[in-house]
Amino acid sequence: MTLENLKEMLKQFGWEYLISKDKSIISSSNNYLDMKKENVYPNIYKYQDKYFKNKIKNVTIDNENYLVEYLEDVSEYIKLIKNLKHDEMTGLNTRNELERYTNELNRVCTVVMIDIDDFKSVNDTYGHQMGDKILNLLGTIIRKNIRKNDFAARYGGEELLIIFDTANTDLVKRRIDSINKIFNSCYKELNLSFSAGISLFNNTEEKIEDCIKKADEALYYIKTNGKNSSMIYDSSIIKDEMKI
């Protein structure tokens, strides 16, 4: 196979592609870079109302190694995901259900953003099957420790989001810390923990997206200051942290 044969084969499959060698671009189809601009899900891009998954393969031609990236149409798969109400991995609501829920949210509540600590290293050391088990475990623990009128969803990757039907952020923090302790007690050899950012949503003063952003900023503060803990959003602390 020659480089030209490879390009012709990619065209026949209808894939947008990029071929590189030693981090230098050798060849690219016309729309490849345009199609990779809008990231919708991890490794999935939206382009003109269709969805494409980025895939990577190493190809050897005449003893030279090339990296081939191509985009596979996964529009039907995404449609299926959007119609699902529950995430198969965690048992929590899907991101799409979260959007539906927040669009109708018109009351004061508390938002919590959770991120599993050092999740990548667990995947790298013990494999993705163990990573899947951990996600399922945390989803199960959360479902068993929130009330029916609370709402929990998988936000993306190892990030989970809970909306508690209360304005008592101190109560929510105690509940989140309790959930973290239960999580800590499982798979002791893995030292499981998560970090969490907490933010009060006052629907008369802000948008839910702004509240989620605040919870995420509090989460980031915890992730960079020890992990394995939770924090209620505090604008003065966050601003000081961002100045450093």
What proportion of the residues is helical, as a percent range? 40-55%
Stretches where pLDDT is under 50 for at least 5 consecutive residues are: none
Question: pLDDT average, as an integer?
Answer: 91
| Helix/strand order, N-terminal first | HEEHEEEEHHEHHEEHEHEH
The description of the largest β-sheet is: 6 strands, antiparallel
Which structural class matches the secondary elements?
Answer: alpha+beta
- What name does CATH use for the topology of the largest domain? Alpha-Beta Plaits
Structure write-up:
A hairpin with a 2-residue loop joins strand 1 and strand 2. Helix 5 packs across helix 6. The termini are far apart. The protein has two domains: 76 residues, no CATH class; 158 residues, Reverse transcriptase/Diguanylate cyclase domain (Alpha-Beta Plaits), CATH 3.30.70.270. The protein is elongated, with a radius of gyration of 21 Å. The strands form two sheets. The protein has a six-stranded antiparallel sheet with strand order 2-1-6-5-4-3. Strands 8-9-7-10-11 form a five-stranded mixed sheet, sandwiched between helices. It has nine helices and eleven strands. It is of the alpha+beta class and 244 residues long.
